Amino acid sequence: MSSTPPRRAARKAPSERAAEIAEAARQLALERGLAAITLRSVAARVGVASGLVAHYQPNVDALVADTFATIVAAETAEVAALLARLPEPPQRLALLLDTLLDGARLDVTAVWVEAWTLGRRNEALAASVRVQMDAWQAVLQDVVEAGIAAGRFETPDAASVAWQILGMIDGLNAQALVRWDGVNDRGVHLARAVEGMVGAARGSLVHGGSPRA
Amino acid sequence: MSSTPPRRAARKAPSERAAEIAEAARQLALERGLAAITLRSVAARVGVASGLVAHYQPNVDALVADTFATIVAAETAEVAALLARLPEPPQRLALLLDTLLDGARLDVTAVWVEAWTLGRRNEALAASVRVQMDAWQAVLQDVVEAGIAAGRFETPDAASVAWQILGMIDGLNAQALVRWDGVNDRGVHLARAVEGMVGAARGSLVHGGSPRA
DNA sequence: AAGCCTGTTGATCATCTGATCAATAAAAGA
DNA sequence: TCTTTTATTGATCAGATGATCAACAGGCTT
Question: Which ranges does the entry annotate as DNA-binding region (chains A, B) (predicted)?
Answer without folding.
Answer: 38-57
